[in-house]
Amino acid sequence: MVGVSQNWGFHTTTSASYDTNRKKLIFNQVNNFLKVKGGFLTLREEAIKKLQNCCNNLESSINKKRNTIGSIRDMKTSKLTDKYTKEFQSILVKYNDGLLELNKNYYSLKKIVQVNKELEVSLITENILKLNSFDLDKYKIFKFATNSQEGTRIQLNTNMMSEDINSLRKNLNELKLELNQEKKRIKKFSNSLDLTILMDYSTVHKIAIDSL
Known about the structure:
By secondary structure, this protein is mostly helical. The protein has helices at residues 2-64, 70-94, 97-115, 120-128, 158-191, 193-196, 201-210. The chain has one domain (27-210). It has seven helices and no strands.
């Protein structure tokens, strides 16, 4: 009987250690996801500055042609618009890699959460980061331009560019706020993890709902 008791104690310790390692694995992936998301927002901020410069350069170049004769002015304006449309598009394509990396890390996190779905860490992580409602389309907010490799099929005037840039700025501010809230909630949860391990499912579920 003593031997059985010792084996049972060893099994319990091993199981607890295994669960702890799984939790660490989940948190590592969570941190990777948040880091990549932060990096993506930094890239978007950089892209916005370059897009704004492109728009300003187009407007400035067109203004310089105002005193040119009508038909010649129109031809030069069209060439300028075409030039800066291509530049605007190339900036979007260049900074598209950040979006692809974010999507890749989301699926990695989603997979590890699903594999360990019986752990309360997975449940709460899923709710805090809203993994089930993650939609890459909310990051694609261009009304006139496109961030695909195909490029845009129309010329973009300064009004069109400005509308895209303003949409990007608004979206960036929303995503920054979202990221800060996610970091705070994840940190709060990780700090209280030792306490929540002992809670029953109903309590854990309540924490998950409160984290929304």
